[in-house]
Specification:
This protein is mainly alpha-helical. It has eight helices and five strands; from the N terminus they run βαααβαβαβαβαα.
C-alpha cells in the first residue's frame, strides 16, 4: 500500500507486525514508500503507517476520514474519499462488526478470509454489490494478500480519479505577496 502512495492507518494486532518491520518510524518512508507519500511523510515528519490504537479504536480512523471531508474539503461524504478498509486475518466476529461499521460509513472494506456468509448467494450479492448503492461502502473478499492490496489500491485510485487528485501537479511556491493575495480573496 505505501509503495503506491497510500498512507496506512492501522489498529490492533497489525501494529505489532508494522512496528517489527520498522513502518512506524518516519525514517521508513524513504525506504518503503512511493515518491508522493515519502515526500509527505518527510515534510510532516510522520511514518507511513500510523497506529491508531487497539482493534476497537477503528472509529478513530473514521473520524480522520470525516475530517478529510469536513476540514480538508475532499469530497462531500466519506464514500467519496479515496480510502479502503481491510480485515486481512480476522479472528473473531468483532472484525465483522467493525468492518460493517466501515461499510455503513461509506468505506469499501476487504475481508481477507472467507466471509461466514459463503453459501448464501442472495446475501453475498447484497453485501458485495447492493450495499454500495445504499451506503457508498461495500464488502469485498480476497484471501490472497497481494490481490487483497491490489483491490484496495484500485478502489483508492478510482476515488482519486473521481476527485481529480490522481495526477501530480506542479508545485507553486508562494511568496508573501501571493499569500496576502489569497487571504484577501
Amino acid at each position: 500500500m505505501i509503495k503506491h502512495d497510500v498512507i496506512v492507518l492501522t489498529t490492533g494486532c497489525n501494529a505489532i507486525a508494522c512496528a517489527k518491520a520498522g513502518l512506524l518510524t518516519p525514517e521508513s518512508a524513504k525506504v518503503y514508500c512511493g515518491p508522493g507519500l515519502a515526500e509527505v511523510c518527510e515534510a510532516v515528519g510522520i511514518p507511513p503507517v500510523l497506529h491508531m490504537g487497539s482493534c476497537v479504536d477503528n472509529s478513530r480512523i473514521l473520524m480522520a476520514a470525516t475530517e478529510v471531508v469536513k476540514a480538508g474539503g475532499l469530497g462531500k461524504d466519506i464514500s467519496e474519499v479515496p480510502v479502503a478498509g481491510s480485515a486481512p486475518e480476522w479472528m473473531s466476529e468483532k472484525a465483522i462488526s467493525i468492518g460493517h461499521y466501515f461499510v455503513a460509513s461509506g468505506v469499501y472494506t476487504v475481508f481477507g478470509v472467507t466471509m461466514p456468509v459463503t453459501g448464501a448467494p442472495v446475501f453475498e450479492h447484497y453485501l458485495y454489490k447492493e450495499l454500495e448503492d445504499i451506503y457508498g461502502g461495500m464488502w469485498d473478499c480476497e484471501p490472497d494478500p497481494v490481490k487483497h492490496a491490489q483491490k484496495m489500491i484500485a478502489h483508492i485510485d478510482k476515488k482519486r480519479k473521481a476527485l481529480g487528485i490522481d495526477k501530480a501537479r506542479e508545485r507553486v511556491l508562494f511568496d508573501m505577496a501571493a499569500r496576502r493575495e489569497i487571504e484577501a480573496a
